[in-house]
Amino acid sequence: MKIAILGYGKMGKIIEKIATDRKHEIVLKIDVTNQDELTTENLQKADVAIEFSTPGTVLDHIDACFKAKVPVIVGTTGWYGHLQRLKDECEQNGTTMLYASNFSVGVNIFFHINKMLAKLMNNYPYYDVQVEEIHHTQKLDSPSGTAITIAEGIVDELDNKKEWVNILSTDGTEGLADTIKADQLLIESFRIENVPGTHTVVYDSEVDSIEFKHTAHNRNGFALGAVLAAEWVQGKKGFYSAKDMFNFSL
Ligand SMILES: NC(=O)C1=CN([C@@H]2O[C@H](COP(=O)(O)OP(=O)(O)OC[C@H]3O[C@@H](n4cnc5c(N)ncnc54)[C@H](OP(=O)(O)O)[C@@H]3O)[C@@H](O)[C@H]2O)C=CC1
Ligand SMILES: O=C(O)C1=N[C@H](C(=O)O)C[C@H](O)C1
């Protein structure tokens, strides 16, 4: 498979290594220094594009792929409110996109069990629930896309939570958690040097706590999942998510 890499940072570089190990060829790499090379002609040299850049650039990259009719795998987070337009465009124009807030197998298993657990916890309303996420200090968005997917899973399943709210914990936010209403789900974000991504769901009661946690040890799982998505999407038309690709069942 011939692959275009859009965004050649921490993720783009690992994706290049994993893709070439799997015998794919990188035919285009776009970063801030060579935006002028993001042409329809260059994109059409690829069977698929993999996009991990920034919230400010991702939409231009997706639109360029749609224009070139090249399937695009999108991992960039922090750009919400545009998904419906992109889904509609895929349906109307026969273009192809797969978006996931997190491509790792482990986190997608976590997403699945998180919803099952939230549904179960309706029977135990004396537990309150909170989501915590920790990432490296270069991360531009908060909460993480993964934390949002986890929180949406809980809000979908747990009757007493109606929406999520976020606090980015830095000095001076002490006590802010006390302003959260009972039907709001708190996502607390922490930024600590060199953390690839840790997500925890905590159900807390007066007598005990239940903690459900995923810890990424490095970025390889995210990158492998994105390359697997690029392989999976070949020959498909329309809008997909990681859920379609993993299709977990018991
Ligand atoms: N879905 C998932 O599984 C995962 C998603 N992510 C998300 O992926 C995104 C990228 O993460 P990461 O690789 O760690 O971030 P990096 O900051 O390391 O990489 C982003 C890259 O995008 C480049 N860039 C900036 N502006 C442009 C532009 N105009 N055109 C092309 N490239 C540009 C940056 O260039 P420069 O360095 O020169 O500024 C940089 O190389 C983030 O949104 C992150 O949240 C991350 C991991 C997993
Ligand atoms: O920025 C990151 O690094 C990550 N971003 C994604 C997110 O926002 O959830 C996925 C992963 O946690 C790493």
TrEMBL record:
Dihydrodipicolinate reductase C-terminal domain span: 106-245
GO MF annotation terms: 4-hydroxy-tetrahydrodipicolinate reductase; NAD binding; NADP binding; oxidoreductase activity, acting on CH or CH2 groups, NAD or NADP as acceptor
GO BP term, example: diaminopimelate biosynthetic process
Subcellular location: Cytoplasm
Domain of life from the UniProt record: Bacteria
Catalytic residue positions: 135, 139
Residues that bind NAD(+): 31, 75-77, 100-103
Keywords of the record: Amino-acid biosynthesis, Cytoplasm, Diaminopimelate biosynthesis, Lysine biosynthesis, NAD, NADP, Oxidoreductase
GO cellular component, one term: cytosol
Chain coiled-coil ranges: none
Binding site for (S)-2,3,4,5-tetrahydrodipicolinate: 136, 145-146
Subunit structure and binding partners: Homotetramer.
HAMAP family on file: DapB
Summary of the function given for this chain in its UniProt record: Catalyzes the conversion of 4-hydroxy-tetrahydrodipicolinate (HTPA) to tetrahydrodipicolinate.
Name assigned to this protein: 4-hydroxy-tetrahydrodipicolinate reductase
Name of encoding gene: dapB
